[in-house]
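In the laboratory, one determines a bound structure by crystallizing the protein with its ligand and collecting diffraction data. In a computational setting the workflow is compressed into a single prediction: the sequence and the ligand go in, and a structural description comes out. We illustrate the idea with NAP.
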Amino acid sequence: MAYFSEFTYLAASILFIFGLKALSHPDTARRGMNLAAFGMLLAIIGTLVRHEILRYDWIIAGLVIGSAIGAAMSIWMPMTAMPERTALSHSFGALAASLVGISEYYRHGAELGAFKMTAIGFEVMFGGITVTGSIMAFAKLSELVRGSPITYKGQNILNVSLFVVTAVIFITLIFLPGSSALFYTMVGLSFLFGILLVLPIGAADMPVVMSLMNSYAGLASAATGFALSNNVLIIAGTLDGFSGFILSILMCKAMNRSINNVLFGAFGAEASGTATQTEGVMREVSTEDVAVQMAYARQVVFVPGYGMATAQAQHVVRELAELLEARGVTVKYAIHPVAGRMPGHMNVLLAEANVPYSSLYELEQINSEFPTTDVAIVIGANDVVNPDARDNPQSPIAGMPILEVDRAHSVVVLKRGRGKGFSGLENPLFFKPNTGMLYGDAKSSLSSLTHAVQQA
Ligand code: NAP
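The predicted complex, in structure-token form:
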């Protein structure tokens, strides 16, 4: 059985690596998920047959409860609440790692050698930070806690001091593993640090925090693997830890945040500055006008954002695009890396609606095309098309790369009213002379547009 177990671990690790590779492209992402899920199933089977397991009743109870919670979350939580769901999952994963670490310490305590104590220390430290940090991220994203940065005097000093004290206790434990008071103090401080780390971060910067937490959860799992001499945990945890960290860096770039700023939790201090004073009126346009513009355009670029996700308008967009293409219009989709509420959100939705991947253009590819685009249709996007990020150095989002739709000949913004984007900032795009506002739920506006283009 030991050989069988090791074999399943090896197979699972290979499947995780191929799964991760496949996830890097929307065309193969679904296959990647299936490969990784199958790998996880193999790893679970390989673990269940190990001789260390003496009874199954608690395991079965955990499996039933966990599966019920997981199934309920995936069935009933909407796609738009995916970041909240991910935050909760990270928190559960990290809690499992922390509890394994605490139980290992409880069982072996003073007998632990320096190597195992180091692994367990990492496990509970990163695990503890991730548990409460992810719960805090969940609370902020779901607005149970104020989403804007919560700051107070001396916050950074307190956070850094707390981290240093926790790290010093950790190092001391490597030499004095028998000191259980120190161990449990470290656990408590890690839980506290997770809360304090996320408190000053605004909800708009939460994607970076989420992927960083993902990275911490991965590191905690890898440390668990060292503590338990379990290869699949070491490999899966390392893959998770580093892919999460790389994603954090990529998202920092996309949101113009420095990684240092993320690591030391000082986002709140940066969220100052002023948005451009927007005067004038927003020009409302009619469905018929927009339909005629699109029907006789050479190139139309759709720019989806969070509003397309809430309206579930992806299928109607594809229908409209096909109609336009049949009339000889070139249709492209401009995808911002942080449009929506999770990385790849727009790609997932458009893939679900069978929009060909070749029609999707990333920010760097499409921005040079806007000056020659006849109509840019902004579908429930706001922050990712806010020209203030480019033009106003005082703006809180200054420097964030944007889709430069304002450079298109004509811009039409589909939104319900005067609602602000995730950052809570006003958007000068809506007041520009070449911008028209088409008010209404994105799905019904697009349906009406489709109908009107058919008549045009
Ligand atoms: P956004 O700035 O949040 O703006 C969304 C807009 O959609 C709102 O102004 C809203 O205006 C409109 N809207 C909402 N429901 C709608 C509906 N049913 N029909 C039509 N319009 C609707 O979205 P974004 O431009 O995609 O930017 C994403 C933001 O989220 C960024 O600030 C990003 O940093 C942040 N974020 C991203 C991620 C990620 O990983 N992608 C995760 C978390 C946060 P009305 O209320 O007037 O309709």
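The domain at 287-455 is CATH 3.40.50.1220 (Rossmann fold). Keep in mind that any predicted model is a hypothesis to be tested, not a measurement.
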